[in-house]
């Protein structure tokens, strides 16, 4: 890592712990900063804070005292999930103290070039795809960022011979200044996290910060299936590499069932290891990055053909007596479920859907439901999902929870069918998060296999 000197003997406040806060605190301490950690969780219930204190780092737990900002802090590094209207953050900004997220620290110390991936849907799958393709091409890859490995921790171990493949959320990107990836990917932009950002325009602006410091020596991969990408393409100094499933572009595209890069055929779309039109877009973004990184076509094809998906994101969950199970618990909105269904023959699909919605109807999902073999419906949104099923003419069963739904789906399935958990809803009516919901599905599939 680069042994930068700018934090030596500077007071830095790390606001909020979790993995990224701990990583930032330890890195800043290593760089010679005078670190204070402030976390809302009481000290006696906070093993991370206890470990940091043992390491000689000052910790203040249980509340966020505004008087703390009377100290002469040169910088605040905040947890990405803490909003900018949080009193501590707002007052720090009012005092003119820079407020970063830890990905900025990762950039400042990283010897390795960075490939940054952001977007509304598909960023984790695309990040993982890119890492696997680069690995197949004999590149030394280190995954980090929003995918679960703090960037500021991973960057400490990276050398100039590595590549940091970094998933980035809009929350993280709001806290950067000098951050500059060599390649940036924006998978797509949909109205999401509006409660945090205030408007779709502000959300897009946060995502677009990924390219703010890029130059003509860098590359930004944009999904030209979206109109917004055309206007963004005119607003960057980086070289734009377009991707499209709708037309031939001067980048990566789909034509006659084949994936191309700048006119060169790479592989058939049907050879991608995971189904769905969204995964064709993810694969095109991956191909664009791989070609920019000098990976040969055979390595790209081998890695994408072997790609088994990411847990809870259209994850292949095995077969039982000819019935195939897919865990797409991450589909927490209508668009994600539409894309999941696009990869299958509806007549063979038994769809498990429902959960916590935002009070919306599911009319726009109806065309995608037409022709489904069956639906199993659950959760708070069940009455509205049932109306959509009835409009689509799909028979349905009601279930108490995901485990019950999985068993009921298997009861109506025959060899050749697909049981797809793709809820089109959030999980919080029954589960702590979509991972817990997906794990319940996976556990029930294993239970059914055990009985056979």
TrEMBL record:
Reactions catalysed: UDP-N-acetyl-alpha-D-muramoyl-L-alanine + D-glutamate + ATP = UDP-N-acetyl-alpha-D-muramoyl-L-alanyl-D-glutamate + ADP + phosphate + H(+)
Gene Ontology biological process: cell division; cell wall organization; peptidoglycan biosynthetic process; regulation of cell shape
Subcellular location, record wording: Cytoplasm
Domain spans labelled Mur ligase C-terminal: 312-424
Keywords: ATP-binding, Cell cycle, Cell division, Cell shape, Cell wall biogenesis/degradation, Cytoplasm, Ligase, Nucleotide-binding, Peptidoglycan synthesis
Principal location class: cytoplasm
All residue ranges annotated as the Mur ligase central domain in the record: 117-290
Amino-acid positions noted as binding ATP in the UniProt annotation, renumbered to this chain: 119-125
First-tier enzyme category under EC: ligase
Transmembrane segments: none
Molecular function terms, GO-annotated: ATP binding; UDP-N-acetylmuramoylalanine-D-glutamate ligase activity
Family per record: Belongs to the MurCDEF family.
The protein, known as: UDP-N-acetylmuramoylalanine--D-glutamate ligase
Species per Swiss-Prot/TrEMBL record: Streptococcus zhangguiae
Lineage, top ranks: Bacteria, Bacillati, Bacillota, Bacilli, Lactobacillales
Gene: murD
